[in-house]
Task: inverse folding
């Protein structure tokens, strides 16, 4: 099933989405209508905490004769507006190698102009550093700067290089440390699209200090999730998803999730080593190869509309605007 957080004028609500029919079911209202407690549907975190029971109740409500709303009549928010934690990995070899070349090309442009930039972009990428094959590499990002579909992302004043990043993210269920890899898939509540907006010039400066990223990734609206969470039974194999980036309607990149260096269960098992992973955390996959401007040498301009399309999940659209 597809699960969303939405607003139709009275504050955030949790809904079950039938995307092809263009409709959404207010789960708390539906539960109250049939005499059930609406508490498992108070928030998306409450539904995650309710476990299998919450999902079973949601499915049963959807089968009843209940008043649905049209998706066009509501405003979708981030499906998980405030995750309990957010982490972002580096899981795609193409992105890792090409982003390294992109960073060098950006430095070359700053020092020598367009010709130096083009020459740097024409060079071959470096081999993948062995560390990326030895363990999942990730960082903890800001869980308080999450926004959702159609939100306008205001670019930080300290940056001139605006970039998008197409990622898949999982939302966790259950709370446990030392999760065996064979059981880690059971700790995935669902999947969503993650646009990891990045202030590339600030990120590049920060990473020279061998710590971070910080302000290159952390500003209001930087972490975009949506349009909804798709449960594992509906999504199927997350390694078989085709993806596409469009900017102002122009296709800038296509890719696939088939070549992740580590699977989501492997990432969860690794992160949980002597550390409790809580229900309602978000783990990003890292950027799918070719699916950010840094890799192809094309950053965003103020006013651009970015659309991220992912098979069996949907589309996530946002507009970026530079501040004065």
Result:
């Amino acid at each position: 099933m597809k699960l969303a957080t939405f607003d139709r004028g009275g504050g955030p609500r949790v809904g079950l989405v039938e995307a092809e029919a263009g409709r959404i079911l207010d789960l708390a209202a539906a539960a109250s209508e049939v005499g059930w407690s609406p508490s498992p549907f108070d928030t998306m975190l409450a539904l995650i905490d309710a476990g299998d029971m919450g999902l079973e109740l949601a499915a049963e409500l959807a089968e009843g004769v209940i008043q649905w709303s049209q998706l066009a009549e509501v405003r979708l928010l981030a499906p998980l507006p405030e995750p309990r934690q957010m982490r972002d990995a580096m899981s795609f070899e193409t992105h890792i190698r090409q982003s390294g070349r992109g960073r060098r090309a950006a430095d070359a442009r700053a020092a020598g102009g367009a010709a130096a930039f083009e020459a740097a972009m024409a060079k071959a990428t470096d081999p993948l550093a062995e560390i990326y094959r030895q363990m999942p590499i990730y960082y903890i990002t800001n869980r308080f700067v999450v926004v959702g579909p159609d939100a306008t992302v205001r670019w930080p004043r300290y940056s001139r290089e605006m970039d998008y990043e197409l990622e898949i993210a999982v939302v966790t269920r259950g709370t446990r440390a030392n999760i065996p890899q064979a059981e880690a898939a059971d700790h995935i509540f669902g999947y969503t699209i993650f646009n990891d907006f990045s202030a590339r010039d600030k990120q590049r400066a920060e990473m020279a200090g061998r710590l971070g990223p910080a302000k290159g990734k952390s500003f209001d609206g930087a972490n975009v999730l949506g349009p909804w969470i798709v449960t594992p039974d509906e999504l199927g194999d997350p390694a078989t998803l085709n993806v596409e980036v469009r900017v102002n309607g122009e296709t800038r990149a296509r890719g696939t999730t088939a070549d992740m260096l580590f699977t989501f269960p492997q990432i969860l098992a690794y992160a949980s080593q002597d550390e409790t992973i809580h229900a309602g955390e978000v783990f990003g996959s890292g950027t799918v190869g070719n699916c950010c401007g840094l890799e192809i040498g094309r950053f965003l301009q103020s006013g651009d509309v970015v659309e991220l399309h992912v098979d069996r999940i949907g589309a996530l659209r946002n507009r970026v605007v530079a501040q004065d």
